[in-house]
Amino acid sequence: MKKYSFYVLMLLGFSVLISSCGNQGDAKSSSSGALSSSAAEKAYVAPGEHDEFYAFMSGGYSGNITVYGLPSGRMFKEIPVFSQFPTSGYGYSEETKPMLNTSFGFVPWDDSHHPDISQTNGELDGRWIFINGNNTPRIARISLETFETEEIIELPNSAGNHSSSFITENSEYVVAGTRFSVPIPQKDMPINEYKGNFKGSLSFISVAPDNGRLNLEFQLIMPGFNYDLSHPGRGKSHGWFFFTTYNTEEANSLMEVNSSQNDKDFIAAINWKKVEEYVKNGGGTIMPAEYAHNVYDEHTHSATSTIKKEVLTVNPLDVPGAVFFLPTPKSPHGCDVDPSGQYIIGNGKLSADLTVHSFDKMIAAIEGKRFDGEAYGIPILKFDDVLAGVVKSGGLGPLHTEFDGKGNAYTTFFISSEVVKWKLGTWEVLDRQPTFYSVGHLMIPGGNSAKPFGKYVVAMNKITKDRYLPTGPEMEHSAQIYDISGDKMELIYDFPTHGEPHYAAGIPAELLAPKSKKIYRLDENKHPYAVLTPNDAKVTREGNEVHVYMSTIRSHFTPDNIEGVKVGDKVYFHITNHEQDFDVPHGFAMIGQNTSELLVMPGQTKTSLWEPKKPGVWPFYCTDFCSALHQEMQGYVRVSPADSNVPLTYTLGE
Amino acid sequence: MKKASIIMIIGPLFLLGLFSFPLWNIMLGAPQYPDPLGMNIHIDGLRDMNEFDLQNIDGLNHYIGMRTLPKAEDMWEFSIFPLVISGMVALGVLIGLLGFFGKVSYTWFIGWFIVMSILGILGIYDFNAWMVDYGTNLDPNAIMKLTNLDGTPMTYSPPLFGKADMLNFQVTSLPSTGAWLMFVGMMLTVVAFFLGRKNSKSAAIKEFTKLATS
Lengths: 654, 214
Fold this sequence. Notes:
The complex is a heterodimer. Chain A is mostly beta strands. Chain A has two domains: about 55-515, Methylamine Dehydrogenase, Chain H (7 Propeller), CATH 2.130.10.10; about 520-650, Immunoglobulin-like, CATH 2.60.40. Chain A is built from seven helices and 46 strands. In chain A, β8 (about 140-145) and β9 (about 150-155) form a beta hairpin. Chain B has one domain. Chain B has a five-stranded antiparallel β-sheet. In chain B, a hairpin with a 2-residue loop joins β4 (about 160-165) and β5 (about 170-175). The longest helix of chain B is centred in the last third of the chain and has 37 residues, at about 175-215. The chains are: A mainly beta, B alpha+beta.
């Protein structure tokens, strides 16, 4: 028996040898099974080696962005964007609290969906990444040098900021559409008077080319549909923006049935260059509004929040030739434009087929004024006049499409849980691979730009079930990486993702890694409470406010003994990290602190507020294992009763 | 002799490289420092290999009680060395010029080389003495006081030349661009000497044959 199994093993080994030899240079190798060692090699990035691509995944209900490497699926960082993040103190520190300010006050959370990287000439330029907050409509800009959130702008007249945040070809605008239509301006009215009274806003936010600063330039006030997803035109269609819509029925209740009755909804085609010109010539109506604009300054290490009071709105009917509707079957979800800008793909989520519109045909139909009626005065083009083709996929529930730059498109099918590869122009299906399970978005690095890097596609799934060891009812989502360099897609790796990644954006590592900042320069620190040398460390009192100007270096706080603090004081610890060495942060935590710890990067200043409630001697310490003497990095604050007259003193090494 | 004198003029000029390139380089690599910290020793002071390296070396050295690295004004060497080098360059060029116009003989060339070599050896001796002092004279209240296996206190003098392991660091100390330029310049003066001697010998032979045949 033993001998027999030995022969079987030998035979197996031999067949592996033969098949792996036979597969060299042949992309048709099997995509699964233990014998396929090539898949493991493709996803394997050896210890100490770097990945080829960065992948920025939205965190969904975590409100943040997570940064991964491709093809390894290793997670590098979670970037706090819309949510408080105790790990670094984001949203807890005095400097970053203003980042989460809105017209509704402090909102410590959001639902982040669609990251998009800035572009120049339609290609990824790696300056910034943008992402939308879906719940309390906001757009954030994140620096790709510091990997920190630098700016958040709230959007008035919007609700469910879902068809966002997508970038035009030269990062002229970040565009954000509303998923829920609402009364504009908001008012108290019966919900069932929705039809004809609610409106949908599409916001165009300019990006300053030098520093990325955002400004809400204008909002198009559209009929009360649901604006689901969008993408910019590029190349020949640059200057246009395309939005999928659903609920053109304008239902307001039991939407899953009532908004699914029309056989076709629309893709709204917006000639934003025309609207921009109209606005530049003084067009549009300024309307009162209230929205927060929060900006973080890398040199003061502090954010400021400004409430803006008005917004420029544009009625599409006032700009003839700027807005058209393209009928698209079955509540289309994803709205994707191919790298050439010629094809606009509507992923009709309740159908089996993909509808592909032709930009050239659309222009011809507009020029020939071949309209099929109108909706609220906006011309509807004839379906057959703009249709380029239909992809008969055999799948169910198409959601999103990305491109590989080699003439192929890849579409996710939520219901049939697969990725389908098809050919642009012939609409022929070339390959299909299952996903695990119920895939939402997919991402090819640069796959929504004019220049995709078509080597891998990542499928981001909504359902995990049995893919990993069980962790109770709640678990992380799941993603799969496929190698798409050959004719057939090959599943090479499967990894859990944090939060609920909706969309993601990928970029070659060499475009970002060399400019990633290592430290903040202490000599450029302009924080008003920074101490630039330990000699400047001090403690001051203004009424019941105590300001501690504290410095840290391996491994001590200056000062580390403070007396004269009283119950009822507000004690602000302004911590400046004096290290100028890569990856030497110091932390700060105070017993009984009602906020989070701080994690202070080299050269940075952060502030924590502590309101002592009890007399005593209370310790604080460094939370980051900064050196062999980390455990010694601690100090004490003596808190006296409110009426005491212990003088304010502070010492180090006495 | 003209060719030899021109080489004698050029040779010492190579030493001017010391005003822009480091004489010596010390690199400190450790598991935590995949990009090693580096210190460039110039004739007029210590400089960072990469910005903040000196500050970070000081930060690490405080654990073992080393003094902070000297600033240019803390050591007389950093003001004297540039003067010595300038003086020797001027002297070398002058000797070369005098040789060119036949005022001095080629033996002056080797004389310059010998003086320069003595000064160089003195400089290296001084440099080594500083490193020994720096690595041995430690703060008695240092955070980490380590001893060798035989119980003597551990010292941390970097090697003058080559590699050495010190705690978690591997220290590499090697001559740098400035030193190599100085070496080339000095070798040129030796070449100048031999060329000068060869030429004067053949000139003497020519003279002799002329005398003999006339």
